[in-house]
Design goal:
It contains eleven helices and four strands, in the order E-H-E-H-E-E-H-H-H-H-H-H-H-H-H. It is of the alpha+beta class and about 300 residues long. Strands 2-1-3-4 form a four-stranded mixed β-sheet, with helices on one face.
C-alpha cells in the first residue's frame, strides 16, 4: 500500500511548474548564470564563497584545522552566499562552480588562480597542498579516500532524499520517508560498525574523511539535522555518538561550524570570516550590540 497519488509519467517531461517545496523558487532544469554579479575578493590567498550547510562546513573546518596546526599560508576569506536568494547563480559564482552549488573556492596563491568546486575536491586539494590530514601511510591514505568518497556518494540519500521528504517537501508521504529513513539508518549502522574498531575513519588518525563525514552524520547523531534525532533513534549508534563527541570537541571544528552560519543563536553565527579575531569581535551578537544589524525577531 502507498499513500502517494497515482501518477503516470508523460512521454516527454516538461518544466511547467515550480517543484521542490522550500527551495522551489531556485530549482530549475538548466544551468548557467541568471544575473551578472562579481564576487568580492579579500586579502588572503584563499577566497571561499559558501554557506554554513553541512557541505560548506566541511571546508571551513579544514581551513580552521590547518590554521590551528600553525599553517599561516592557509589564511582565508569566507564570504556568505545566500542560496535562498539565488546568489549561487551570479556570473562570478558560476565562473568558479558551473554547477551553482556551494562551496566555491579560489586559490590566489597560484597563477592563474586555481578554481575548486565540490567540497571533497577542496579537502583533497588542501590536504595535498599543505601535507596535512591525509595520512602518509598507503593503507591509511586509501582508507581515508574510501570514506571520503563514501560520504560524497551517500550524503545525497541523507540530504536530498531523507531531508527533503521529511523536512522540506510541501506534502508528507509515507513511501519516500520510509524509503530514505531506512537507507539513512543503514548508513549510520555502516559508520557505527566501523567506529567500533577504529578511533577515526582512518584507524587512529584524524583526517579529511572525518571532516567530510562529521557535518552530515555528526549532525544527525547530535539530533540537529532536520530535527530527526528521535525519529531515527540516533542515540542507538553508540560508536557513532562517541566519535561525534570527540570530533565536536575539537576547537577548530567549533570555529569551522560558525563560519558563514546564518541561523542559530547569534553568538554562533559568523556571517563572514576575514581574520581569526572575527570569532571574538564579529559574531552576530557583537554586531547586534554595536547596532550594525538588527536583532532577530
Amino acid at each position: 500500500m502507498t499513500d502517494l497519488p497515482d501518477y503516470t509519467p508523460p512521454k516527454i517531461w516538461k518544466w511547467d511548474r515550480e517543484s521542490g517545496g522550500r527551495f522551489a523558487n531556485i530549482n530549475r532544469p538548466i544551468a548557467g548564470p541568471t544575473h551578472d554579479k562579481e564576487l568580492p575578493v579579500g586579502k588572503h590567498p584563499f577566497q571561499l564563497y559558501s554557506l554554513g550547510t553541512p557541505n560548506g562546513v566541511k571546508v571551513t573546518i579544514m581551513f580552521e584545522e590547518l590554521l590551528h596546526a600553525g599553517i599561516d599560508a592557509a589564511e582565508y576569506d569566507a564570504w556568505m552566499i545566500n542560496i535562498g536568494e539565488g546568489e549561487q547563480f551570479g556570473s562570478g559564482f558560476v565562473d568558479i562552480n558551473p554547477n551553482s552549488k556551494i562551496p566555491a573556492l579560489l586559490d590566489h596563491s597560484t597563477t592563474p588562480p586555481t578554481r575548486l568546486f565540490e567540497s571533497g575536491s577542496m579537502l583533497v586539494y588542501l590536504a595535498e597542498k599543505f601535507d596535512k590530514f591525509l595520512p602518509a601511510d598507503p593503507a591509511k591514505r586509501a582508507e581515508t579516500m574510501n570514506w571520503l568518497f563514501w560520504q560524497m556518494g551517500s550524503a545525497p540519500f541523507l540530504g536530498g532524499g531523507f531531508g527533503h521528504f521529511y523536512a522540506y517537501a510541501p506534502e508528507k508521504y509515507e513511501y519516500p520517508i520510509n524509503r530514505y529513513a531506512m537507507e539513512v539508518k543503514r548508513q549510520m549502522d555502516v559508520l557505527d560498525r566501523h567506529l567500533a574498531d577504529n578511533e577515526y575513519f582512518a584507524d587512529d588518525e584524524y583526517s579529511i574523511a572525518d571532516m567530510a563525514i562529521f557535518p552530515w552524520y555528526g549532525g544527525m547523531a547530535r539530533g540537529v539535522l532536520y530535527d530527526a534525532g528521535e525519529f531515527l533513534q540516533v542515540q542507538d549508534y553508540k560508536n557513532l555518538q562517541r566519535w561525534t563527541r570527540q570530533v565536536n570537541d575539537r576547537p577548530a571544528v567549533k570555529r569551522g561550524m560558525m563560519v558563514n552560519r546564518p541561523y542559530g543563536e547569534p553568538e554562533t553565527q559568523l556571517h563572514e570570516r576575514h581574520d581569526a579575531s572575527d570569532f571574538e569581535n564579529n559574531t552576530q551578537d557583537k554586531r547586534i550590540a554595536r547596532g550594525e544589524v538588527e536583532a532577530p525577531e
